[in-house]
Amino acid sequence: MGGFFGAISKRDCVLDLFFGVDYHSHLGTRRGGMAIYDERDGFQRQIHNIENTPFRTKFEKDLADFHGRSGIGCISDTDPQPLLVRSHLGLYAITTVGIINNADRLVETYFSDHGHQFMAMSSGKVNATELTAALINQKDDLISGIRHAQEAIDGSATILILTRNGILCARDRLGRLPVLIGKNEDGCCISFESFAYHKLGYEDAYELGPQEIVRVTAEGWETLSPAGTQMKICAFLWTYYGYPNSNYEGVNVEVMRYRNGEIMARDEVQQGRLPKVDYVAGVPDSGVPHAIGFANRSGKPFARPFVKYTPTWPRSFMPVNQDVRNQVAKMKQIPVPELIEGKKLLFVDDSIVRGTQLRETVEFLYESGAAEVHMRSACPPIMYGCKFLNFSRSNSDMELLARKTVQELEGDEGQEHLDEYADASTQRGACMLQSICKTLGFDSLGYQSLDGLLEAIGIDRDQICTYCWTGKE
């Protein structure tokens, strides 16, 4: 994933930019970057590796040297950015969030002649932001270039461009991520997360539509290219990676999660599937609000049978090495024996992707004396790796727990019946749940239905991307 923040003001905006970017640290773990423009001294830029050190720690020492009234910054889970680009369109800084699935084909199609080159990363791949800039530079102006890039890219591209005259912000062609503008008496900001600018004294001012391109200055903003009519905003904004106090398309994240848990419990009660348990709990931290909603509706008491020790490892998806990640996940789990020993527990997690850490969590709970462990996922079975935002990064869909289980149950034939496997009311769906329970050690397992999830979000379902569950774009 990744996050972004931009600010432009009648005064120095470096601190606003610093704290605004820092408030997006939950969205990525690899690189952080800031680019600032000053009328006298021009562009200043810095990029740091944040894999083992928080963004704010890496950038605090840079603040004394940064100065300017406009800037953009990012938290990146992929490429080093923002980049400084010099072309016939002028000198500008650019940062992007998204994914380019057809990068090799784009390079071959547009840049295979002599005189074009890209700086390759250690993986050998092209920096996606550099490729986006190269596509933009094929046109005679930035607006035409942005539209060209977004049309050419298979995947998604949300773009911020810092120029001498302001900031251009472009929401992805299908609006898979939000782009929000805040305003105060001195200027404006652009943000992924709305809470980031609320804490800095900005008020909600504008939310870009899909494909819309806007120029932002200290005085305000103007639309340079209108919004499209089709939107496919990512559902996982609400279920998992969005921050609790943010709003997207007018729907608050935390409120949606409470409602989602309530709907799950409502449906289980109606279907007579709710087990007799002592406590309902969330798998910390993102499963907790879903679990609160589930507990409130089911009438079962909410508890925290284990907590995570976060001062040393504050983010569950650090570090990069999977073996170390698994060990860290185990070390972070601190039990509350009085709430586990001899108890029947129902846990709600935000999602079940590969199931590796969940298996270790269940083992940890039984080792701590739990009598029963029931598991619920706050979203449907993930059948497809995300190809738009890198949410569920996989080398193969068969790494996903649900798809792997289908293959084990029925081989290639099962892959033709994924809709049935995703529906717990079918024979195939029941078999998949039973198999996962046996593999991971659950006493029972339930997934939120797609209808229930969309009901919890509450906006037009045709405007929500559900690819990772349905495989339909």
From TrEMBL:
The keyword Magnesium applies. Binds 1 Mg(2+) ion per subunit. Binds 1 [4Fe-4S] cluster per subunit. GO terms for molecular function: amidophosphoribosyltransferase activity; iron-sulfur cluster binding; metal ion binding. [4Fe-4S] cluster binds at residues 234, 386, 465, 468. It catalyses: 5-phospho-beta-D-ribosylamine + L-glutamate + diphosphate = 5-phospho-alpha-D-ribose 1-diphosphate + L-glutamine + H2O. SUPFAM superfamilies: N-terminal nucleophile aminohydrolases (Ntn hydrolases) (SSF56235), PRTase-like (SSF53271). Pathway: Purine metabolism; IMP biosynthesis via de novo pathway; N(1)-(5-phospho-D-ribosyl)glycinamide from 5-phospho-alpha-D-ribose 1-diphosphate: step 1/2. Its EC number is 2.4.2.14. One of its GO terms (biological process) is purine nucleotide biosynthetic process. Keywords: Glutamine amidotransferase, Glycosyltransferase, Iron, Iron-sulfur, Magnesium, Metal-binding, Purine biosynthesis, Transferase. Residues 1-219 form the Glutamine amidotransferase type-2 domain. It holds the Pfam family GATase_7. Its cofactor is Mg(2+); [4Fe-4S] cluster. The keyword Iron-sulfur applies. PROSITE patterns: GATASE_TYPE_2 (PS51278). InterPro entries: GATase_2_dom, Ntn_hydrolases_N, PRTase-like, PRTase_dom, PurF. Mg(2+) binds at residues 286, 349-350. In the C-terminal section; belongs to the purine/pyrimidine phosphoribosyltransferase family. This is Amidophosphoribosyltransferase. The lineage of its organism: Bacteria, Bacillati, Bacillota, Clostridia, Eubacteriales.
